[in-house]
Amino acid sequence: MKLLIAAWCAIVGAGFVCAQTTTRHEFEQPVMGCAARVVLFAPDAEAARTLAKAAFSRMKALEHTLSDYDPSSESELLAAGCGDGTLRPVSPDLLQVLSAARTIAQQSSGAFDPTCGALTRLWRQARRSGVPADATALRAAAATIGWKSIVLDMAGQRAALLRPGARLDFGGIAKGHAASEASRVLRNAGCDQHMVAIAGDIALGAPPPGELGWRVVPHPMQDEAQSDALWLAHCAISTSGDDFQHMDSNGKRLSHILDPRSREPLTQRVAVCVIAQEGLVADAAATALCVTPEAERAALARLLRVTALVLHERDGRMQRATLGHWPQSQPPCGSVPVGAPPDGKTPMR
């Protein structure tokens, strides 16, 4: 599963203000253990601050609902009472994510599975300590995994986890969903021209003034050449990869990305960037495509209705592939990007 995944897309809010009624404003706060960034166009600084506050509030509310780091989060409290089959009341937010996660788990034949929490905790501890998890503990955690153990009562707004010891891990869906929900808050408040990014999970509203879209540069891996810039709007982009989170054990590279079906971490490098209409689909699809065999990726992308750019290791060399209708690079519409920080620092990745 994707935990704290370093971003793959260098995002620049391209454009200059071609209308005097709005100006560009940028805000940043920590959300879900990452730097969350909101860029928007508003009439003045006070209006911009109000809009950004509402967007961050929505993201942090979802963090409290979905976090597996916070023992008081709603998802942790649900998991703490699992195993007896009792359906428990849950919030609309948790019910929505559980339902979407279960659907994508089914569509991906378990390549994405939100019930990996017990296993991801062990590998998280292993990366921190540099010592692989105990085999007995790994077997016990693996026995708790299974998306079919998620039982939902949509009408009654209740949920249950049937397997004793099961723990939820929304690391492969929560940030994308939170970015899209923050985008929805801004759009509902009348702020159409905006971008929300939580590390490598991005939600884009309408283009900046005078532009075709927001300038997005897919940056698969640090030691690989980046792709051409894309100009995108009204969509979500999510990245999954292990460039920043892996450990070496007995000469073997162990990724933080786990295959829920084999219960093992990936041992070959892979990075996936997905474009979809909704962030929770883009985020989960990026995670699932990382662990899906190469020959099956195109079919999964079609099923999930996403397009993707994949960089994967084969025979010791990195291979690049696109799935679906990956957009072609487009030139800016008569203006220059202004999103790069004036001090020359690298934009958030």
Quick structural summary:
The chain has helices at 45-66, 74-80, 92-107, 117-129, 135-142, 174-188, 279-291, 294-304; strands spanning 9-12, 23-31, 34-42, 88-89, 150-153, 158-161, 194-198, 201-204, 214-218, 230-232, 235-241, 246-249, 252-255, 258-259, 264-265, 270-276, 307-314, 317-323. With 349 residues, the chain is an alpha+beta fold.
Q: Any overview of this molecule?
A:
The protein has 349 residues and is α+β, with helices and mostly antiparallel strands. The protein has a domain at 9-44 and 192-323: T-fold (Roll), CATH 3.10.520.10. 30% of the residues lie in helices and 26% in strands. It has helices at 45-66, 74-80, 92-107, 117-129, 135-142, 174-188, 279-291, 294-304, and strands spanning 9-12, 23-31, 34-42, 88-89, 150-153, 158-161, 194-198, 201-204, 214-218, 230-232, 235-241, 246-249, 252-255, 258-259, 264-265, 270-276, 307-314, 317-323. The strands form five sheets. An eight-stranded antiparallel sheet has the order 2-3-7-8-11-16-17-18. A hairpin with a 4-residue loop joins strand 5 and strand 6 (158-161). Helix 3 (92-107) runs parallel beside helix 7 (279-291) and helix 4 (117-129) packs antiparallel against helix 5 (135-142). The protein is globular. The two termini are 19 Å apart. The model is unreliable at 1-20 and 331-349 (pLDDT under 50).
